[in-house]
UniProtKB/TrEMBL annotation:
The chain crosses the membrane at residues 104-125. The lineage of its organism: Bacteria, Pseudomonadati, Pseudomonadota, Alphaproteobacteria, Rhodobacterales. GO terms for molecular function: metal ion binding. This is Cytochrome c-type biogenesis protein. Belongs to the CcmH/CycL/Ccl2/NrfF family. It comes from Aliiroseovarius halocynthiae.
Amino acid sequence: MKHLIALLAVMGCLAAPAYAVNPDEVLDDPVLEERARDISAGLKCVVCRGENIDESNASIARDLRLLVRERLVEGDSNDQVVDFIVERYGEYVLMKPNRSGANLILWATGPVLFLIAGLSGALYLRRRAGAKDGTQALTQSEQARLNELLDE
């Protein structure tokens, strides 16, 4: 049983990533194909959440892969290809959105809200520690009544 588990662990480690690139999409020039793979790794499929266009089997991902390769064959640089696709589909297609403009608000919101929550919690705990505990001593009549109830 130990050998089977070890074999499965080794096979899991050696498994190559599954690409959805079809053989008819692969460029003849290995340098251009490598550039296409690098660009595709940074472009998100607009249908599949969290998958780049190299890993997605969606038809729109295939179209984007073909578009990337077409632009590279025409002589565009990597940045020009990415800019062309972002212009056409919006910044949603980027796996790592830019940290400028309106996106800066999105990048900053999480840490700012975390700081606000931390400060609010610290102020609450500080006020709570400084507050009186809210207990008051019993009056003589209340103490006498309590003693009566306890004696019964």
